[in-house]
Amino acid sequence: MKSQLRSIVRSGKFMTGFVIFVSILLLTIIYPLINPGDPMARIGYDSFRTRPGTYVSLYDTLDGVNTFTFRIPGANDIRISNKLREDDRERIKYWLVEYGKQEEVAGLTEEEIDIEDTVALLGLWWEFYSDEVFVRNLTNAERNAFMRLDVRLDRLFDIDDLQVYTLNPETGEHDILFTEVSTDDYINVSDVANIIRLPLGTDNFGSDVLKKLVLATATSLWIGLVAGTVATLIGLTLGLLGGYVGGIVDDIIMFFTNLFTVIPGFVLLILISYGMSQMERGATTVAVVIGLTSWVWTTRSVRSQVMSLRNRDHVNLSKLSGHSMPKIIIKDILPYIASYVVMAFILQISSGILAEAGLSMLGLGPSTTSTATLGMMLDWSIMKSTAFIHGAWWAYYPVIVVILLISFSLNLMNTGMDQVFNPQLRD
Q1: Tens of pLDDT along 179-205?
Q2: Which of 161, 182, 74, 152 is closest to 119 using CA atoms?
C-alpha cells in the first residue's frame, strides 16, 4: 500500500489534476472569507453593462477629495481614443472604404485603414467626409447615422472644464457652484471612500460574477460529491452482491442493471426532474436524483471485478475457515478493488457536475434563489439572458472554464491512478 501511495504521489498526471482540483476547492473556502457578503445580492442595476474592472464612487471623488494637477503628454489623445467605441471605428472604416471604391481614392482600402490608429483614422474621416458627399451604396438611414456620428466625433474635441451646480434653497434653482473639474485634475484613488473591484463584472441580475462563481463552484462540487457518493455506494453494493453471491441474486441485479442500461441515464434524469415541482428541486435533491440514475456502469464494473476474485485461494480459505459473507467481502475482496472504487468515485463526481450543468441548461436543475450552481449560471447567462448577444463574455466564459478545469482535473487524477494500479498501463 505504501509503495502504491508513493507511486501515486510520483505520478505527474495525478498530481497535476490534484493540484488543480485542490486549488479550486481552496478558492471556494478562502475567497468568501476575503470577500464576505451575499453572492446573490444585486449591486448593479445595468444588465451586463458593468464590465470587469475597478469602480470608484463619482460622488465621493467630487465631495471634498483633494485634487492634484498633472499635465500628462498625450492625455487628451488617450481620452479621445478611449471614447471612440469599437463599433464607431468599424463604421468609419466602412464609410471610407465605400467612398474609396466610388471615387477610386488611393489609401482608402480595407487593408490600408487601421482602426486601431485613432489619429490616422480620424484624420482620414475629416479629410474626406462631408454631409454633401453622396455615397451610392448607402441607404438614407445609414447616411443619417453617419451624420450623427460626425456630430458626436466633433463633440469629442469640444473639451471644457466641467462645472457642477447644487440646488439653491432660496431660489429653488441649481445656481450654486459646487465644484469645477478640469481636464488636468487628478485624484488619489486611496482618498476615495467607496471603491468596488469587480474582476468579472456583474451579470444580468447585477450580482458580482466572481463572488457568485465561487458560490456556484462550491455548490456544484457538493452536488458532484453527493451524486458520486450515492452512485458509487449503490453500484458498489449491487456489484459486490451480484458478483460474489451469484445465482438468482445476480440474475435479479443484472436484470435491473440491464434495464437501466437500455434507458439512457440522462433521459431518465430529465423525466424524474420534470416530474418534480420547482420547490422540490433543491441542490441536494437533484444530486441524489443524479446519483440514483448513474450507478449502472459502476455496478457492472464492480461485479466483473468481484467475479474474478471470488474463487481466489485466499477467498476459498476464508470460506473454509467459516467466515461470514460480509466479513469475506469486506476483508478479502474489497481491499483488492478499493483502488478501482476510488477511481469510479472520482469519475462519478465529474459526471455528476456535468449532469447538473446539462440539466440546468434545460431549466430542470436546482430551483433556488439563495444559491447558484455552475449549470444555473450558464442557464441564466446564455439561455435566458443571451449574454453573448450583449458581448458579456465575463458572464459565461469563466463558468465554462471552471467546469472544464474541474472535469479535466478529476479525469487527470483518474488517469494517473489507473496507470499506477493497472498493470497493463504501467511503463
Answers
A1: 888 888 898 888 888 999 999 988 888
A2: 74
Which CATH number is associated with domain 2-40+205-425? 1.10.3720.10
Q: What angle do CA 300, 283, 410 make, to 5 degrees?
A: 50
3-state helix, strand, coil in the chain (%, to 5): 65, 5, 30
Q: Grid cell 467459516 — which residue? A: 322
- The cell for 219 is 455548490
- Alpha-carbon span 237 to 113, nearest angstrom: 69
Show the CA angle centred on residue 393, arms to residues 390 and 399, nearest 5°. 130
Model pTM greater than 0.90? no
Phi, psi for residue 343 in degrees, rounded to 5: -65, -40
Query: What are the residue ranges of helices labelled H in 35-175?
Result: 58-62, 75-83, 86-103, 118-128, 140-156
d(CA 230, CA 345): 10
Asked whether 56 and 193 are in contact (CB, 8 A), the reply is no
- For 121, what's the count of Cα atoms within 13 Å in the CB-facing half-sphere? 23
Cα–Cα nearest to 376, from 344, 406, 353: 353
- Alpha carbon 235 to chain centroid distance? 31
Write out pLDDT tens, residues 31-81.
999 988 888 888 888 777 788 999 998 888 887 788 888 888 888 778 878
Residue 51 burial (C-beta neighbours within 10 Å; 0-12, 13-18, 19+): middle
Q: Which helix (H) or strand (E) holds 195?
A: strand 195-198
Q: Under a CB-based contact definition with an 8 Å cutoff, are residues 408 and 23 in contact?
A: no
| Dihedral sign for Cα atoms in the order 219, 221, 223, 225 | negative
At 29, list the grid cell. 473556502
